Amino acid sequence: MTTVTERRPSQGSGPAWALRDTGAMAGRNLRRLTRQPEQIVFNLVSPIMFVLLFRYVFGGAISGLQGLNYVNYLIPGIAVQTVLFSAGTTGFALADDMQKGFVKRLRSLPMARSAVFGGRVASDTVLNAFGLVVLLATGFAVGFRPANALGLVLAALLLLLFALATSLGYALIGMTVRSPEAVNAATFPIIFPLTFASSAFVPVKTMPSWLQGFATHQPVSIVINAARSLILGDTATPQQRELLLGNTGTGSLVLQSLAWTLGIGLLFGVLCTRRYRALSR
Question: Residue 252: its pLDDT value, please?
Fold first, then answer.
C-alpha cells in the first residue's frame, strides 16, 4: 500500500524569496505570451508604423531644427512613446487575471505579495526591450544615425528603467479597475497629454507659451531629452542644444530622468503592494 503525502509549497521570507516568486511569475507570463502571438505582433508593428508616419508624412512639414536631421530628433520620442504604450500591457493583463480569478487563486498560496505584479512588470520589460530593438532597426532603415554606440545603449537602458517604473503605475490601475477594457479608459487621459504635450515630436519652443512650462518639465520630456542628448552626443551644435534641449547638459538631464524614474517607481511600488494587501483581506 502506498502512502500519499500531500506536498504544500513552503513559505519563505526576504528578498531572495520575493525574487524567486517574481521570477516564477515572469516565466509564466512569458510562456503565456508565446501563445498570444497577436499581442507580440501589435507591440512590434505599432512603433514601426509611428516611425514611418512621422518620418515620411509629417516629417516634411516640421522644420526649424537648426539643421538636425528630423529622424535623429524623432527616434528618442517614438522610443519613449513605445515603452509608455507597451507598459499598458501590464495593467491590461493584471486586470484580465483578476477578472478570471487567477489572482484570487494566487492569494491563497504562500508567495511573496509583490511577485504578482512584479512578475508582470518584469515580463513586460522583456517585451519592451524587444520592441526597442525593432524600433531602432526600423530607425536605422530610414536614416537614423546615433553619435556613438555607447550613448545609444545608455539611452536604451534609461528608457527601460522608465518603462519599468511606469509599468508599476499601470499595475496599480490594473488591480483597481473591474475589467481590462477599463484600463485603457483610465490611462488614456493621463498618457495622451504626457506623450503629445512633450518634446517627443516637435521642439517645446514651437508650442504656445502657456504650454511650454508643462511640456518642458514633465517627466516624459525630461526622459526624452536625456535619451536624445545621449544619442546626439557631440554631434549636436550649441544652437541645436539650445533649441532642442534648453541648453541643459547631458549629465543633468540623465540625473533628472533617474530622479523621476526612481520617484515614480517607489511611489507606485508602495501603492501596488498596499493594493495587493487590501485585496488579500
Answer: 92
What pLDDT does 131 receive? 86
Q: What is the DSSP code string of 143-205?
A: T---S-HHHHHHHHHHHHHHHHHHHHHHHHHHTTSSSHHHHHHHHHHHHHHHHHSSSSSS-GG
- Number of neighbouring beta carbons within 10 Å of residue 105: 10
Q: Which residue carries 545621449 as its cell?
A: 230
Mean predicted confidence (pLDDT) in 147-160 = 92
* 231, 151 Cβ separation under 8 angstroms: yes
Q: In terms of Cα–Cα distance, which of 137, 158, 152, 151 is closest to 52?
A: 137
Hey, what's the cell of 249?
547638459
Grid cell locating 86: 507597451
CA 251 to CA 246: how far, in whole Å?
A: 13
Q: What is the rounded CA–CA span in Å between residue 162 and residue 168?
A: 10
* Average pLDDT of the chain to the nearest whole number: 83
Give the SS3 label for residue 76. helix
Mean pLDDT of 42-53: 84
Three cell numbers, residue 11: 513559505
Which amino acid is it at 121? V
The DSSP symbol for 65 reads S
User: Do the Cβ atoms of 82 and 129 come closer than 8 Å?
Assistant: no
Contact call for residues 163 and 86 (beta carbons, < 8 A): yes
**Cell numbers representing residue 266 in the block:** 517607489
